[in-house]
Design goal:
The chain is of the alpha/beta class. It has 15 helices and eight strands. It has two domains: about 180 residues, 3-Layer(aba) Sandwich (Rossmann fold); about 150 residues, N-(1-d-carboxylethyl)-l-norvaline Dehydrogenase, domain 2. The chain has an eight-stranded mixed beta sheet with strand order 3-2-1-4-5-6-7-8, with helices on both faces. Helix 1 links the parallel strand 1 and strand 2. The relative contact order is 0.10.
């Protein structure tokens, strides 16, 4: 698609320039979009434009020429027919608030962030709806098994876009889909968002079990019961249970819990030897959504009165100084009992 004249190219804005935002910007650029990648950092913007590479988050991969980085939010959103929000969950409200004055009513709004707002326990579509003053039905969420490190290198990836508005979901599908990046639609926004958020908690647990050398059997149990936790909370919040058997559910859960690309898995692995959470996050140098999500899910489980033993044990490790080995041993003991009770 390099033969398209830039003056007639479709325009997209991607907010912000982390690893996932940069990878999705690359997908859009490969599909014929002129992409403005917004970042707060002048140094990062200049570096991307000069070297054609996001050296901080995705070093060694050249970006298409039709991606430009900017710190000017108005410039980024001007004439954009698609605005893709990929801010961390803790920053989403502020980014949306800043973007709202510059968004055209005709701009399709998609987000690709997996998490809840910790203070309010709200999903990202709700946050965007409030700050952008748009009906929930106009918003789209992108999720599924998709490491930025693989997407940016055009390795085969399949994701889902969800919206209550099929036309909006199909618009997002058309914008993003190509031979390397397959996109399905799904009407279940709640299910897709809950699955994408909670799987990060389970990935922290998977990293812990691997760091403690508990083996594959334990991790298989963790993933299986983790999927049950996702399903319990999701259905209590109004999701379609079938969503959890799809890409946003079991697909994303498997990839996040079994790959060293996963920030959450790596964080859990480092926590296993007793490294303090603050040190782990400092060494990661990137947002680990599972940490914030554990706090939010702990409160959501109480609010909706659902049993989430993995989440509760990880909460104890992260925020109550519980020894990781003790937590996992308690969890595995509980899992055995819980499985027998359910079968019985």
């Amino acid at each position: 698609m390099t033969n398209t004249n830039q003056s007639t190219m479709r325009r997209a804005a991607v907010l912000v320039a982390g690893s996932w935002g940069t990878a999705l910007a690359s997908v859009l650029a490969n599909n014929g979009y002129e992409v403005l990648l917004w970042t707060r950092s002048e140094e990062q913007a200049e570096g991307i434009n000069r070297s054609r590479e996001n050296s901080k988050f995705l070093p060694g991969v050249k970006l298409p020429d039709t991606i430009r980085a900017t710190t000017d939010l108005k410039q980024a959103l001007q004439e954009a027919e698609l605005a893709l929000f990929v801010a961390p969950s803790g920053a989403m409200r502020e980014v949306a608030k800043q973007a709202a004055p510059y968004l055209s009513p005709d701009t399709l709004v998609v987000h690709a962030t997996k998490g809840f707002e910790t203070d309010t326990l709200k999903r990202m579509t709700t946050v965007l709806s409030e700050e952008l003053e748009r009906p929930l039905e106009q918003l789209v969420v992108l999720s599924g098994p998709s490491h930025a490190e693989e997407v940016i290198r055009k390795q085969p990836t399949t994701v889902v876009v969800a919206s209550a508005n099929l036309q909006a979901a199909e618009q997002a599908q058309d914008a993003l889909m190509n031979t390397d990046f397959r996109v399905y639609t799904n009407p279940d926004v709640v299910g897709v968002e809950v699955a994408g958020a909670i799987k990060n908690i389970i990935a922290l647990g998977a990293g812990l079990t691997d760091g403690l050398n508990f083996g594959d059997n334990a991790k298989a149990a963790l993933l299986t019961r983790g999927l049950a936790e996702i399903g319990r909370l999701g259905t209590a919040m109004g999701a379609n249970p079938l969503t959890f058997a799809g890409l946003a559910g079991v697909g994303d859960l498997v990839v996040t819990c079994t790959s060293k690309h996963s920030r959450n898995w790596r964080a859990g692995y480092m926590l296993a030897d007793g490294t303090p959470l603050e040190e782990v996050l400092s060494r990661m140098g990137m947002v680990v959504e599972g940490v914030r999500t554990t706090r939010a899910a702990f409160e959501l489980a109480k609010q909706y009165d659902v049993e989430m033993p993995i989440t509760f044990q990880l909460y104890e490790v992260l925020f109550a100084n519980k020894a990781p080995r003790t937590a996992v041993e308690h969890l595995m003991g509980r899992l055995r009992t819980h499985e027998i009770e359910e079968i019985g």
